[in-house]
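For practice. Any example?
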Amino acid sequence: MKVSVSGCSVEEAMRLLGGRWRLLIVSYLVDGPKRFNALRRDMPGISQRSLTLDLRALEESGLVQRTVWPTAPVRVDYALTQDGERLKPVVAVMKEFGMWLKEKG
Protein backbone atom coordinates (compact mmCIF):
# COMPACT_ATOMS: atom_id res chain seq x y z
CA MET A 1 0.00 0.00 0.00
CA LYS A 2 1.21 3.51 -0.74
CA VAL A 3 2.74 5.63 2.00
CA SER A 4 1.24 8.96 3.01
CA VAL A 5 3.38 11.81 1.65
CA SER A 6 1.99 14.78 3.54
CA GLY A 7 0.95 13.08 6.76
CA CYS A 8 -2.46 14.74 6.34
CA SER A 9 -5.40 12.78 7.73
CA VAL A 10 -7.45 13.42 4.56
CA GLU A 11 -4.65 11.95 2.44
CA GLU A 12 -4.53 8.93 4.75
CA ALA A 13 -8.28 8.34 4.31
CA MET A 14 -8.06 8.83 0.53
CA ARG A 15 -5.16 6.37 0.34
CA LEU A 16 -7.48 3.71 1.71
CA LEU A 17 -10.80 4.77 0.18
CA GLY A 18 -9.58 6.46 -2.98
CA GLY A 19 -10.26 5.11 -6.41
CA ARG A 20 -13.49 4.61 -8.20
CA TRP A 21 -15.13 1.75 -6.31
CA ARG A 22 -14.11 1.37 -2.65
CA LEU A 23 -16.41 3.91 -1.05
CA LEU A 24 -19.21 2.73 -3.33
CA ILE A 25 -18.66 -0.85 -2.14
CA VAL A 26 -18.84 0.39 1.45
CA SER A 27 -22.06 2.28 0.64
CA TYR A 28 -23.71 -0.95 -0.55
CA LEU A 29 -22.60 -2.76 2.62
CA VAL A 30 -24.06 -0.08 4.92
CA ASP A 31 -27.47 -1.80 4.75
CA GLY A 32 -26.04 -5.19 5.71
CA PRO A 33 -24.01 -8.13 4.40
CA LYS A 34 -24.00 -8.90 0.70
CA ARG A 35 -22.71 -11.67 -1.47
CA PHE A 36 -20.12 -11.09 -4.18
CA ASN A 37 -22.60 -11.40 -7.07
CA ALA A 38 -25.06 -9.05 -5.38
CA LEU A 39 -22.33 -6.43 -5.23
CA ARG A 40 -21.55 -7.03 -8.92
CA ARG A 41 -25.24 -6.50 -9.77
CA ASP A 42 -25.27 -3.26 -7.76
CA MET A 43 -22.22 -2.01 -9.69
CA PRO A 44 -22.55 -3.31 -13.27
CA GLY A 45 -19.54 -1.25 -14.42
CA ILE A 46 -17.05 -2.97 -12.12
CA SER A 47 -15.03 -5.92 -13.34
CA GLN A 48 -14.82 -9.11 -11.30
CA ARG A 49 -11.09 -8.49 -10.84
CA SER A 50 -11.54 -4.92 -9.58
CA LEU A 51 -14.26 -5.96 -7.16
CA THR A 52 -12.10 -8.80 -5.85
CA LEU A 53 -9.04 -6.56 -5.40
CA ASP A 54 -11.01 -3.77 -3.71
CA LEU A 55 -12.80 -6.19 -1.37
CA ARG A 56 -9.42 -7.70 -0.43
CA ALA A 57 -7.96 -4.26 0.24
CA LEU A 58 -10.94 -3.29 2.41
CA GLU A 59 -10.67 -6.62 4.21
CA GLU A 60 -6.92 -6.18 4.82
CA SER A 61 -7.57 -2.72 6.24
CA GLY A 62 -10.09 -4.16 8.68
CA LEU A 63 -13.12 -2.35 7.24
CA VAL A 64 -14.81 -5.35 5.64
CA GLN A 65 -15.19 -8.90 6.92
CA ARG A 66 -15.43 -11.88 4.60
CA THR A 67 -17.43 -14.82 5.97
CA VAL A 68 -17.35 -18.23 4.28
CA TRP A 69 -20.33 -20.44 5.15
CA PRO A 70 -19.88 -24.23 5.02
CA THR A 71 -22.71 -24.92 2.60
CA ALA A 72 -22.89 -26.59 -0.80
CA PRO A 73 -22.22 -24.55 -2.83
CA VAL A 74 -20.03 -22.42 -0.58
CA ARG A 75 -21.63 -19.12 0.39
CA VAL A 76 -19.44 -16.05 0.97
CA ASP A 77 -20.77 -12.85 2.53
CA TYR A 78 -19.11 -9.46 2.89
CA ALA A 79 -20.06 -7.10 5.70
CA LEU A 80 -18.73 -3.98 7.37
CA THR A 81 -16.71 -4.56 10.50
CA GLN A 82 -17.07 -2.39 13.58
CA ASP A 83 -14.32 -0.16 12.14
CA GLY A 84 -16.11 -0.15 8.78
CA GLU A 85 -19.29 1.07 10.49
CA ARG A 86 -17.41 4.30 11.21
CA LEU A 87 -17.74 5.08 7.49
CA LYS A 88 -21.54 5.39 7.65
CA PRO A 89 -21.43 9.18 8.24
CA VAL A 90 -18.95 9.54 5.34
CA VAL A 91 -21.32 7.62 3.05
CA ALA A 92 -24.26 9.77 4.21
CA VAL A 93 -22.37 13.00 3.45
CA MET A 94 -21.31 11.70 0.03
CA LYS A 95 -24.92 10.73 -0.79
CA GLU A 96 -26.14 14.17 0.23
CA PHE A 97 -23.42 15.87 -1.81
CA GLY A 98 -24.18 13.62 -4.81
CA MET A 99 -27.89 14.50 -4.66
CA TRP A 100 -26.97 18.20 -4.50
CA LEU A 101 -24.77 17.75 -7.60
CA LYS A 102 -27.60 15.98 -9.47
CA GLU A 103 -30.05 18.79 -8.64
CA LYS A 104 -27.55 21.44 -9.62
CA GLY A 105 -26.51 19.75 -12.87
Notes: The chain has six helices and three strands. Residues 32 and 64 are 11 Å apart (CA to CA). The beta strands are 34-35, 64-69, 75-80.
